[in-house]
């Protein structure tokens, strides 16, 4: 009986020692950077970020130090993220700045997205 009691006490104290480590890792701030886009945070996340960071609907790629957002069958280059007004500025990499006749692969409008709000009363869009 003494050995069972010792095992239970050992497991209990082991759990108490591990608990702060588990909560510490999840409480770390989730700030990422890729190229000129710094302080990437909720709702966005980079693919290599820990799972608890950001929303996987807003997952960004970092390829050759360039931040990319995948939409539909392609991707857009992220020019900026404004967390004050919840906007992201993206550029189609196939549009050439010197060629006025180039067309985007996809036309983005509000009709391409479904809007929802989270528990913090912020509004976000997801791809239809």
Judged by helices, strands and strand pairing, the structural class is alpha+beta
Number of strands: 9
Number of domains: 1
Helix content: 10-25%
Alpha carbon gyration radius:
22 Å
> How are the strands of the biggest sheet laid out side by side?
3-4-5-6-7
Mean pLDDT over the residues = 73
Domain Wall-associated receptor kinase galacturonan-binding: 30-92
GO cellular component, one term: membrane
Keywords: Signal
GO molecular function: polysaccharide binding
Write the layout of secondary structure elements.
Layout: H1 2-27, E1 32-34, E2 37-40, E3 45-46, E4 59-63, E5 66-71, E6 74-82, E7 87-91, E8 113-117, E9 123-127
Compose a concise summary of this entry.
This protein has 128 residues and is an alpha+beta fold. Helices cover 20% and strands 34% of the residues.
Distinctive features:
single chain; 128 residues; 5-stranded mixed β-sheet; two-stranded antiparallel ribbon; 9 strands
């Amino acid at each position: 009986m003494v050995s069972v009691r010792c095992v239970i006490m050992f497991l209990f104290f082991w759990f108490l020692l591990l608990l702060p480590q588990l909560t510490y890792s999840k409480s770390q701030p989730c700030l990422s950077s890729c190229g000129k886009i710094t302080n990437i945070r909720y709702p966005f996340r980079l693919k290599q970020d820990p799972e608890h960071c950001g929303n996987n609907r807003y997952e960004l790629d970092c390829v050759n130090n360039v931040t990319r957002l995948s939409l539909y069958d392609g991707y857009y280059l992220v020019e900026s993220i404004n967390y004050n007004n919840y906007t992201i500025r993206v550029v189609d990499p196939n549009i050439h700045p010197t060629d006025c006749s180039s067309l985007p692969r996809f036309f983005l409008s509000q009709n391409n997205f479904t809007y929802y709000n989270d528990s913090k009363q912020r509004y976000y869009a997801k791809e239809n």
